[in-house]
Design a protein that fits this description.
Layout: H1 2-11, E1 15-16, E2 22-23, E3 35-40, E4 46-51, H2 56-64, E5 69-77, E6 90-99, H3 103-116, E7 124-127, H4 128-136, H5 146-155, H6 166-178, E8 188-194, E9 210-218, E10 221-228, H7 233-249, H8 259-266, E11 271-277, H9 278-286, H10 299-303
Parallel strand pairs: 1-5, 7-8
Antiparallel strand pairs: 2-4, 3-4, 5-6, 6-11, 8-9, 9-10, 10-11
């Protein structure tokens, strides 16, 4: 499948790229934990670094340098994940970017990639608000503030903490009432998340209440996450600063914001990018219930 995947991207004119696995500054995602390490040079001087959680920052710098269609197929690392089930601290990721495109081009890429790997079912594309209406009986358009979503959670008996973030409130309902039902839908592309959950994505020009972001679910399993990329450097810095503050509030390690990344965003062309968990993809296509079943030596066998 690795060979087939590479051939798929090569046939579409993509260039495969290698990015550093060890970085000085990781991303600011509040709920991801990079694995720290210490490097020593020949003089014995030490340097703090991290195994990357994604090649995203480096690949966006490459877009700024003039690359237009690039993909990465390699290892990424995340700490504080379960050993087995749907997670492994070391995993294979496919990440690809298209300059001068939006997320609709990536939806087509995803569908065609699955077809090239022998997956015959058609994908259904659903706006996030459709899912909230159908499965939670809620109008998401009226739940786009933390206050409104807090009240909705209380009415459903979830009893969140008074200071919970919008994203935490969102996932209380989504993970309990919506995501489990996605297995009934077949393969689904869920698009347009609330703007409060934009992360590194662009806000929709057609409806600024929502972000141009989608996720791919197969049999209820999240496989991929994609954005029409944010190219406003000032807005990017603002969002990363907010994420950094949230990391601090959650008691997580706090990192400097990568200034080279902000400068890259300042001159980056319009683009869209998607990250897809290759091990999960193989797991689903093979009909396996545990990611350990598709790995030679998963962490559960190495460390437990």
């Amino acid at each position: 499948m690795l060979k087939q995947t590479r051939e798929f991207f090569w046939s579409k004119g993509f260039t495969e790229v290698e990015t550093p696995l060890v970085v000085r500054l990781p991303g600011q995602e509040p709920y991801l934990n990079p694995i720290p390490l210490v490097l020593h040079n020949e003089l014995g001087k030490t340097f703090a670094g991290y195994l990357h959680t994604s090649p995203e920052y480096t690949m966006k710098k490459m877009l700024t340098a003039g690359y237009e269609k690039i993909f990465f197929l390699g290892k990424t690392f995340r700490d504080c994940e379960s050993f087995g089930g749907m997670h492994n601290p070391e995993f294979t990721m496919i990440e690809w970017y298209r300059a001068h495109e939006d997320m609709s081009a990536l939806m087509q890429d995803v569908e065609q990639l699955f077809q090239s790997l022998g997956y015959a079912q058609s994908f259904e594309r659903l706006h996030m608000r459709q899912l909230w209406k159908e499965y939670a009986d809620l109008n998401l358009d009226t739940l786009l503030t933390a206050e409104a979503l807090f009240a909705a959670c209380m009415s459903k008996g979830y009893h969140p903490d008074a200071d919970e973030q919008y994203e935490d409130l969102f996932y209380r309902i989504f993970l309990n009432e919506i995501e489990p039902r996605l297995a009934e839908q077949g393969p689904v592309i869920v698009h347009h998340y609330p703007a409060q959950m934009a992360a590194l994505s662009k806000i929709s020009a057609d409806d600024p209440r929502y972000a141009e972001r989608f996720e791919v679910y197969i049999e209820g399993v999240e496989i991929a996450n994609a954005f029409t990329e944010l190219t406003n450097a000032d807005e990017q810095l603002k969002r990363l600063t907010e994420e950094r503050a949230l990391r601090q509030k959650l008691g997580k390690d706090v990192f400097e914001i990568d200034p080279e990344f902000i400068e890259a965003v300042r001159s980056m062309p319009p683009a869209a990018g998607v990250a897809l968990g290759f091990d999960r993809l193989v797991q689903v296509l093979a009909g396996c219930k545990d990611i350990d079943d598709v790995l030679v030596l998963p962490a559960s066998k190495l460390f437990l």
